[in-house]
Specification:
Helix content is about 25%, strand content about 15%. With about 500 residues, it is α/β, with parallel strands linked by helices. It has 2 domains: about 400 residues, Alkaline Phosphatase, subunit A, CATH 3.40.720.10; about 80 residues, Arylsulfatase, C-terminal domain. A hairpin with a 5-residue loop joins β16 and β17. α5 packs parallel to α6.
Length: about 500
Amino acid sequence: MAPASEHPNILLILADDLGYGDVGCYNPESKVATPNLDRIAEEGIMFTDAHSPSTVCTPSRYSILTGRMAFRIPFRGVFTGAGGPCLINEDRLTLPEILGKKGYRTALFGKWHIGLTFYDKDGQPMHEDGLQPVKRIDYSRRITDGPLDRGFDEFFGTASCPTTDWLYAFIDGDRIPVPPAKLLDRSTLPDHEWSFDCREGLIAPDFDLEEVDEVFLEKSVAFLEKHHAESPEKPFFLMHSTQAVHLPSFPAAKYKGTTEAGPHGDFISQFDANVGTLLETLDRLGMAENTLVIVTSDNGPEVGTVVNMREKHDHDGARPWRGLKRDNWEGGHRVPFLVRWPGNAPAGETCKQTICLTDLFATGAEITGQGIPANAGEDSASILSLLKGGKKPVREFTLHQTPSLDLAIRQGEWKYLDHKGSGGNSYSKKGIEHLAIPDNAPDTPGQLYNLTEDPGETINLVGKNPQKAAEMKKLLTQAKESGRSVPMASE
């Protein structure tokens, strides 16, 4: 067994677009077996009211690492290709920096997607989305403002979505050792209901769109083995950030046809299997007993994925919630959150307290006995007590945001959306118009739901309870104007 460090190792496995209903322990009607995720629930805690900070990936990832909602920057949408600059300012404290101060070895393998800086041949910084900027990158120059400049000791992965966003090449540390050499030929890729959302960008000769998650897995396993061999007395923070299960659904060769739920079902199964490999690696190295494992997702499931999976395989990645990725309804941001921490997190427990992925920032600080400066972690509450089986609430309310910066607030059983509609997807659009639910209070400026009585968010109570709506809107306004949604640590 590896020597136990003073502080626990932390393995954060961040899925992409994995829905609440995609995981067996959350959805008994799931058509995809997830034995390894279910194993974590059996050996630890299943959180049923966990939320991504945003309903899309770039702002969620910013918020996970900073403990701050991205609407405060403000930032709309997501990056693609060479997009940037990094959303995390150089002077903003990050989760890996907090842990690094206490001797943690920190590593990120997989998707970054928070922005960084490429340079052209004249040495000028580039911060543009799209294909043309990718063609102008000088790949001999160091990439700045990426993971190595924001607290991580090691990084191997991609700038944006690995199989979607114009630049199909691996970044190793702060450089792309094998630059893209030609345009992607999409005719060579699988063609099915879940193969869209793959742009015709530049691709490197060593980049296989169907095997990227296996590459990320190899890197994470190698990191664990090296850490065990060279410095087992030190703690580590490993963030394993996957492509799965973001569109296009390209499962690796060994997983094709392994489920009865099509290519996307195979992709979910691959993610689950990779989680299992990481757990097995911890067991094999004798590191499991002192490792806090967290598995979650950056937002809810994608529209096309859910629509096709419902139609073709009777599988609902958003079950039981209304809304999908980009929406401020629960399906857009209520995500799986599973924890295993031997000796700390009681086995087989369910936690119903509301938490947000921003809370990982303050939790890392409390685990390592550190305070948080007044200018950091403004939307982060420590969930350490909940990770140890506590039942008391850790936050007064939670904020939600969409890519258009529409905001919502949750307090107890009440949820107020400070906008009309979903805040994200347009449900008049062909293909999803059948999912539209008429607003029973169309003349009111926002939406108020009681999630205890109406978890499906079907009955807008603004007209019937204007006082509660006004109270919630006032609390939301205060949280915006004050610059924080949790008290400062000194208070």
